[in-house]
Write a structure and sequence with these properties.
mainly alpha; globular
């Protein structure tokens, strides 16, 4: 079922969101200071490409650098990427078939706003990354 949902997601909005994250990542990687933010954009872009079957968890050891980084991310790229999720989520919710995909878009908004200090894990192993 996850595969079918991911394929439909890819056609409806996943590819375009991935391109948005790819563009943000490339623009952020232009400077040396922006490379960690660009890597975060690429990581979330892959998550936005195939969201079903994965979830995000907060890393407890992230600390103050992640907080400062999230503020910078919010100003540089997070706001625009969150607007893209809101726009595509509303557009998808206009049809009955698109409602689950619109809700999935709304669930990606917190990750697009504050990605640092989070980890993307499989839904069947949400605590696997913490133990290993």
């Amino acid at each position: 079922m996850k595969t079918l949902l991911n394929i439909i997601w890819l056609v409806l909005s996943g590819f375009w969101l991935f391109l948005g994250y790819l563009l943000a990542g490339v623009l952020l990687c232009v400077t040396i200071i922006g490379i960690p933010f660009g890597i975060a954009a690429f990581r979330i872009g892959v998550y936005a490409l195939w969201p079903f079957g994965y979830t995000t968890i907060e890393r407890g050891e992230a600390g103050a650098p992640s907080c400062v980084g999230n503020v910078l991310w919010l100003v540089l790229a997070g706001w625009w990427l969150a607007l893209a999720h809101i726009t595509t989520g509303i557009a998808l919710c206009l049809t009955i078939i698109g409602i689950p995909f619109g809700i999935a878009n709304f669930k990606l908004i917190p990750v697009s706003l504050l990605p640092l200090g989070r980890e993307i894990v499989r839904t069947d192993e949400p605590f696997g990354a913490r133990v290993a």
